[in-house]
Amino acid sequence: MNSRRDSTDGPEDVDATFAEIVAGLEREGVGRQAHPDEVEPDEGDEAEPARSGRPECQPAVATADDDPDAYPDSDDPNDHYVPPEPPPLPALRPGTIAALLLIVLGVVLLLFPGLFGLTGVIGTPLALIVMCSGAGWLILRMRNTPPPDSGWDDGAVL
């Protein structure tokens, strides 16, 4: 199932070429996960200084785990940000309560149509209409305006 059997645009022995590429990368140190202090020089690498594990384009960044004195204001190095409590939910308006009651009425009508003296054949479509009406009412009542206390800068409005 080798599609390159008769092809002349690539190397004849793909496995040998791949092994050469991997050997070249290993000579350069690609794939080693040694700590910068634990780097053992290979043969002929005595003149080359030891490199750190990070690329040259990235600056060295100290984290709280590396240096406990990095944040002198903090008493505990494991101290993490604790977000504030979210504001309370706003009170439900009468239209929202009515739409939620329509959805509940639709669920009750769907599950127990005999409670209203209806059969399942009549109660199921009626229940679906009532539930969709309640959901549609909720969707139509959604506000697309900024909150009244947002000021002149709304920020990112999603």
Computed Rg? 34 Å
**Treating each run of at least 4 consecutive H or I residues as one helix, how many helices?**
3
Shape summary: elongated
Report the sheet-strand fraction: under 5%
The count of strands amounts to 0
- The string of secondary-structure elements, in order, is HHH
Structural class: mainly alpha
Taking the alpha carbons of the first and last residues, their distance comes to: 53 Å
Q: Which ranges are low-confidence, i.e. pLDDT below 50, for 5 or more consecutive residues? A: none
Task: Describe the sheet with the most strands.
Answer: none
User: Which bin fits the share of residues in helices?
Assistant: 25-40%
Mean pLDDT: 76
Could you give a short description of this structure?
The protein has 158 residues and is mainly alpha-helical. Helix content is 34%, strand content 0%. It contains 3 helices and no strands.
Overview of the molecule:
- It is elongated and about 80 Å long.
- The model has no long low-confidence stretch (mean pLDDT 76).
- By secondary structure, it is an all-alpha fold.
- The chain has helices at residues 14-28, 94-111, 120-140.
Q: Which keywords apply here?
A:
3 helices; mainly alpha
Write the layout of secondary structure elements.
Layout: H1 14-28, H2 94-111, H3 120-140
Helix pairs in contact: 2-3
